[in-house]
Amino acid sequence: MRVLVTGGAGNIGQEVVQLLQARDAEAVVYDQIAPAPGVGIASEKGDIGDEARLREIIAKHEIDSIAHLASMLQFGCEMEPAKAVRVNVMGTMAVLEAARQAGVKRVILSGTLATYGGTSDALDETSPIQADASLYGVTKLLCEKVARRYNALYGMDCRSLRYAAVLSPRKVSSPGVAAALATIFDAASGQDVVVKGVAAKERRQFAYTSDIALGTTLAVLAPKTEHDLFNIGGGDDCYASFQAVADLVRRFAPRAGRISFDGRSADRGRMNISRARRELGYQPVYTLERAVQTIVQIRLSAA
Questions:
Q1: Mean pLDDT over residues 157-172, rounded?
Q2: Is the peptide bond before 284 cis (omega within 30 degrees of 0)?
Q3: Which residues make Cβ contacts (< 8 Å) with residue 274, sequence separation at least 6?
Q4: 2-164+209-234+269-285 has CATH 1.10.1790.10 classification
Q5: What angle do CA 285, 260, 292 make, to 5 degrees?
Q6: pLDDT of amino acid 173
Q7: Contacts of 93 (CB under 8 A, 6+ apart)
């Protein structure tokens, strides 16, 4: 199987590429950054909204499936709404249409728990969308709806994933919750940090990058599924506040700097991942404690 990974040079994309290769699938990276990180990885440079370029790459590499990860993240969407729609919505339309015209049947779309909006209620894939859902969440919701219509109209197998808040040792380029978390981990080296955009007591379902990548890879490779929408997050212990993450950083890096919060978003409820467990065979590996410890160790070793 040959899989085109849009945004494959990014935070999650790099790990998806590695996991696909480990499972004997050939990954081709499509990104604004080229060549993509990694040895021996086919890499193509292009804009996500360039449908003609996407068709060219799909034909050149005889692509069977697409993992569409290229995206503009939460805070960036609020700052530049027009660009958010152009990148997230029209970019996804370009991917879907290029896939349809080329006969690519399976497309995996990356999404977000932000789609649910501000609620502390438990969240499964049938939970109602709240009125305060962010622009980021709304763009992803529209993409899910369009993908479902492509399934119905053209017999495609498009699957949408709603990711938990991602814990990663890598820096992120687009402002959002992932960037806020990266700021928390900056404190491990001893510097004082101010975390923008979220409050200390706000709760999220977190997940380590490797688990998010695992869920994405399984969605690409899994045979026919009953549903086309899946929550991908950590286990129950990964439902915690940003302050809890900060406290763990201080535990594993006793010389960490001060961590203060200067922002407010909203709570998100605990994500139910039973559908992904059942239909994709997804099982998160990292507890919250293990994820934070791993990231702190990586950050300190690189300092």
A1: 93
A2: no
A3: 124
A4: no
A5: 15
A6: 67
A7: 146
Beta bridge partners of 111: 162
- CB distance 271 to 282 below 8 Å: no
Q: Burial code of 51-83, b = ≥16 C-beta within 10 A, e = fewer?
A: bebbbebbeebebbbbbbbbbbbbbbbeeeeee
User: Residue 34 above 90 pLDDT?
Assistant: no
Question: Would you say 161 and 215 are in contact if contact means Cβ atoms under 8 Å apart?
Answer: yes
Q: Which of 82, 15, 9 is nearest to 216 (CA)?
A: 15
Q: Where are the domains of the chain?
A: 2-164+209-234+269-285
Residue 223: Cβ-neighbour burial (10 angstroms; 0-12, 13-18, 19+): exposed
Question: Dmax over Cα atoms in the chain, in whole Å?
Answer: 57
226, exposed or middle or buried, with CB in 10 Å at 0-12, 13-18, 19+?
exposed
Q: Are residues 166 and 12 in contact, defined by beta-carbon separation less than 8 angstroms?
A: yes
- The DSSP symbol for 271 reads B
* H or E, element range at 55: helix 51-61
- Helix, strand and coil content of the chain, in percent to the nearest 5, comes to 45, 20, 35
Residue 134 falls in which region: left (phi positive, over 0), alpha (psi -120 to 50) or beta: beta
Between vectors from CA 20 to CA 38 and to CA 227, what angle results, nearest 5°? 140
Cis ω for the linkage preceding 128 (within 30 of 0) = no
Q: pTM value?
A: 0.95
CA–CA separation, 13 and 69 (whole Å): 7
> Length of the chain, please?
303
